[in-house]
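Audit log entry. Action: structure prediction of a protein-small molecule complex. Ligand: flavin mononucleotide. The ligand was supplied as SMILES and no pocket hint was given, so placement is left entirely to the predictor. Protonation state taken as written. Sequence taken verbatim from the request; no trimming, no tag removal. Recorded inputs:
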Amino acid sequence: MLSTRFTRAFGVEHPIVQGGMMWVGRAELVAAVANSGALGFITALTQPTPEDLVKEVQRCRSLTDKPFGVNLTILPSINPPPYAEYRQAIVESGVKIVETAGFNPADHLPFFKDAGIQVIHKCTSVRHAIKAERIGVDAVSIDGFECAGHPGEDDVPALILIPAAVNHLTIPVVASGGIADARGLVAALALGADGVNMGTRFMCTAESPVAQQVKEQIVANTERDTELIFRSLRNTARVARNEVSREVVAKEKEGCDFTEIAHLVAGARGRKVFEDGDLDAGIWTTGQCQGLINDIPTVDELVSRMVSEAEALISRRLAEMVAEPVGAGVPR
Ligand SMILES: Cc1cc2nc3c(=O)[nH]c(=O)nc-3n(C[C@H](O)[C@H](O)[C@H](O)COP(=O)(O)O)c2cc1C
């Protein structure tokens, strides 16, 4: 058992989180994560309406009696979804943990707090983490530059970002981005984090609701097979390198504006990748840690393997390094 401030504050067995994932964070994955003793988040905006979100929470509850939460991602959008209605659906669904991401959650926080909901805010910089702590979130999850999805514009990898954040915060910190195994978990704890958040690794599990071809491609990909799109728009996203990502980046280099790439990056096309397994149908999100992923385990196998290997790493490999020095006890 790895007991941390995070596990104690959020009432979960293991300091491992499955962050919100568009098209992936559905009841079957989140329930499997909960049943494994980790903390999973249903992705609110994957559900077409707030009413569907309430049903998805109910469906998840029918699959687990352990705690789980909902992710609410607030991103710049031409036609923003009805955030206030999704927020209300979250409150009405009765979940007690929310992961906010993408933008300052200040507008939503009082509603969650009034409902007794704990909020983990996911961000990509120390300054945003400090602001989140100041406005009253219960924990922050901090994404390093390695992460899948939106790493922000500062390009600071987790090896620096996590301890820098820990230096400034008093609430629990969850390290995110680039973590796929026990070594990443132990490293994050050593950096001062109280837990880890993983996206790509959980997407490549048996219960993840994406096509088998996507999981096999993650296993085949190396750490070099991601691409940063939307750099020119200052809305960077790390995605799998494929025909579409190459075209988007090439057009951005030519100085295009968003209207010229909108058809390439449409969410519906990305969804097709996950549903049909057509890997070049659109843009799909994955992180550099895919280079560390070599199998498609069940969530339970993954989480128990990570925890037991982490315990062994800490109590054997690392402990041995601080054991008696060679020659200790031998008279000089
Ligand atoms: C397919 C996919 C979709 C994602 N969608 C979202 C999202 O909608 N909202 C969000 O806050 N994070 C999203 N993320 C980011 C993850 O929650 C997590 O922060 C990130 O994957 C951590 O980096 P890692 O993949 O290296 O573990 C997504 C990640 C993946 C792989």
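Audit: result stored. The chain has two domains: 5-210+294-304, 213-276. The mean pLDDT is 96.
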